Amino acid sequence: MVKKIFIFVLLSLFLIFSLSCFKEGKKEEKKAKYFCPMHPTYTSDKEGDCPICGMKLVPVEEEKVGAKDEKEKSTIFLSPEMVQKIGVKKEAVEKRNLEKVVKTVGKVEFKEPNLYFINTKYDGWIEKLYADRVGKFVEKGEVLLEIYSPELFLAEQEYLIAFKTGDKSIIDSAKKRLKLWDLKDEQIKDLEEKGEIKKTLKIYSPYSGFIIEKNVIEGQKIGQGENLYKIADLSEVWVIGDVYEYDLPLIKVGDEVDVKLPFSPKENFKGKIDFIYPYINQETRTNKIRVEVKNKDFKLKPEMYANLEIKVSYGEKIAVKKSSVIDLGSKKYVFVVKEDGHLEPRQVEVGSCFEDFYEVLEGLEVGEIIAASSLFLIDSEASLKEALEKMESPHKAHKGH
Q: Across the 401 residues of the chain, what is the mean pLDDT of every consecutive 10-residue run?
């Protein structure tokens, strides 16, 4: 019952406000002195009760069209009794520490700088394969394979000859050639000490990681520059997420991100945004972000889906509850409570939405009192919007005279 009374009262007050804005020529109109809040179409010039519902008629102050300024026209008076009856609550406008958790989903991917190809700078044949399967983890310095290369064999012979001459310039020139072919200092020293050339040369992994591609088998002939293995270091991974366009102003590079797997929501991986892509997906209106995450135990695997939570702190800003704002699409309003009991619909400009609050960019000052959420009941929302829209129309018509 209280809710119905609220709807009728507020709608009636808006309709009265709308009618007050019309003007026909320069003729003054005398308004009815009393009306029924429950049945606004019934008016009377005498005190009394509404013949339809028995509710006490509410006095309407006489005024001549154009006698009051726009501020007075946009106010509505509710008696303290009526305010209490329909449950209008008040709250002060204040600065709040605005925080928001931007939630999205992402997919785990390889960190591109941690992908490595293994190849040689000379032709040859694979004599023995140690890293013999995809998925195998290899440590930096671990032997991957042994290769026989006639070209490399000849280069080693030339170095031994140069080494025996004792001519430093010749030795340095021959050594440089071997290093250009990726021979390690230990291998060259072993060649010097033993004075003999081995048929095959061992190829070591320069990185730690998982073999994710293997393109060789024993006995295979390979060419220079041909990719033999692809190794991925998964100690760090990227999680690529999609953030909606309206959340973009809230995030920045360096923001911390909580990464959670759908099948293990209690386990939390910490990451940071290290890149925001410079374009938006036209179909989804989202922008990709890249989150770098430590992956010590390799639990995050490429192609896994993950939930991302970005906690954003926006600092102290003037803010009001979302429920205190009436959204008419292109315009938004709040009701300011005046000292004498009037309610003033006031247009406001709001910024980003933070959980239950809107940042107020323009229209309100700290300390002003506004009607809080209980004023706008869910089932009265359509009526309020319609009333505010009607309220704007007379203003436009009046300005045109």
A: 50 49 44 64 79 76 45 54 69 89 96 96 95 97 95 90 88 89 87 88 95 97 96 98 92 95 92 97 96 96 97 87 85 84 83 85 91 52 50 51 47
Smallest CA-to-CA distance from 110 within 209, 205, 253, 206 is with: 209
List Cα–Cα distances, 181 to 147, 175, 243, 360, 399, in angstroms: 13, 10, 47, 66, 86
Note the CATH number of domain 119-231.
2.40.50.100
- Give the residue among 135, 115, 118 at the shortest CA–CA distance from 228: 118
Residue type, 165: T
φ, ψ for residue 129, nearest 5 deg: -115, 120
**What's the confidence (pLDDT) of residue 41?**
62
Cα–Cα distance measured from residue 274 to residue 253, given in angstroms and rounded to the nearest whole number:
5
Query: What phi and psi, each to the nearest 5 degrees, are found at residue 175?
Result: -65, -40
Dihedral sign computed on CA atoms, order 33, 37, 43, 48: negative
Q: Which amino acid is at 238?
A: W
CA distance linking residue 369 with residue 21, whole number of Å: 26
Beta bridge partners of 124: 222
Lookup: tokens for 47: 């005190």
Q: Look up residue 391 and give its two tokens.
A: 């309220």
Q: In the chain, where are the structural domains located?
A: 100-112+234-314, 119-231
CATH number of the domain at 100-112+234-314, please?
2.40.30.170
